[in-house]
Amino acid sequence: MLVKTGLLVVSNPKHINRLLTDVQKSVKNTLYIQLLSALNDPLGNFHPNIFNTPPKLSRTIFGIYSQASVLCNNLDVRVLLTGLKSNALVHIKTLQPIDVVIFDRKYGKSEIDRFISNKIGNISTEYNVVTIDCGEGDKILAEIDNLDNRVYKHVCLGGTFDRLHVAHKLLLSDSILRASEKVTVGITEENMTHNKVLWELIEDVEARMKNIQDFVVDIFPDLIYNICKIADPCGPAIVDPSIEAIIVSEETIRGAEKINEIRKEKGLGELKIIPIPFIAELNPQGREEAKVSSSNLRLRLLGTLLKPVEKKNIPNKPYIIGLTGGIASGKSGVISHLQNLGVPIIDCDKLGHQMYKKDGPCYNKVVDLFGRKLLDDKAEIDRKILGNLVFKNPDELKKLTNILWPAMGKEIQKMVSNLNTDIVCVEAAVLCQAGWDQFCHEIWVTLVPPAEAINRLKTRNNLSEDQAKERLAAQQSNNEYISKANVVFCPLWEVEYTKLQVHKAWALLQKRIPIKTLDK
To answer: What angle do CA 63, 66, 68 make, to 5 degrees?
Structure first.
């Protein structure tokens, strides 16, 4: 039976590959890992004093997190540093209660009971014990270490820290290993994220700060932590004279060097720059990076269910997907892939055109409101003239939508009810603003960066830069669209990549709503 949280007690890190493979049979959410060498030989540990410098510990922790990213990336793995930085350990006290304790060697019951009683401070009332007997295996030999073993009173690092992953955990762990008193972590605010891939899907800064705070306190509560927002690339590193060292990933060393240049200009001491290698991504797909990164995680969100589907008081069949997104955001591409999957489409843009026709339900009301200057030589409403009138004037646009949207809503529902199908897609840029989302079972959203949308409008609609910006400004922002989304797509790249996103969403949809249940 799987439990939420486990503690893996490791006497020999060379076993970590097998341990992480096997541990998934017992744990489903959080896995804490404690190196037994930190526990003052409580169970007859035969590898004392091997992990006794930051570089040696860093290599060991790097190996554990690297293997975790490959073998159990579904688990929140946390390598505990408690005991590694001091000569005494009172308790392993984790934020999450331990449901199962897993050992990599066989121990006697009395030894195990004494260990759990004396060393674990947050154990579930009904816990289990599992032994994955790896034996003694190869001895761990102390390595000659010429690396810098110094620790510093105050260490800093910074970044976006979106969706805490193993590379983040490695950086934070190294900061803790190198600090004797305090660690400052600068978390970028939204203004600094707009150059990131799919920045609209980045977690709120407050959520990111809480995730970091919880993690560092969880793995080592005995330091002072300053988790702060930063609105520029340097943050406290260029103003705080007490900071002595900065932890960076290998590819951001130049940024740390720039910080030292600024510190020198301000008369502050130079920071020791400690670079940390990145963790390789096992099988990067599509647009993903070769290293473990937050952008990879955001790319993998495309086509998945971002938030639960709200239960609505509407018929189960047909199951209605509401597809929306900003102008020039790639909705038509997603539509073509859905059509190839056999999904009928209600195109609300085309439906809106029909509402303006002389025989349409909105023709007379629109002409009465805006005058006959809208009409062409056939007495039809000229949509270009109408668009120029309303897109620059929110009040006039509101008058138009008050006529158009209710009438269209009734027509959409009528069209849906006349379809003999299991699933239908209603596509509209204004789906949520118009209130049509209330009769959709779930909402799918397309997004591209504003600059890309402007370029597409200039090319596709032959608009000037200013005209394209006006069209974009007249609609909701990407963030507003995403706030309503159950599923998000980004048709920014090649057509095949969009197709993969849609097919992923379709496969997951079939699992959520098996067709046989729709009639119930």
So the answer is: 110
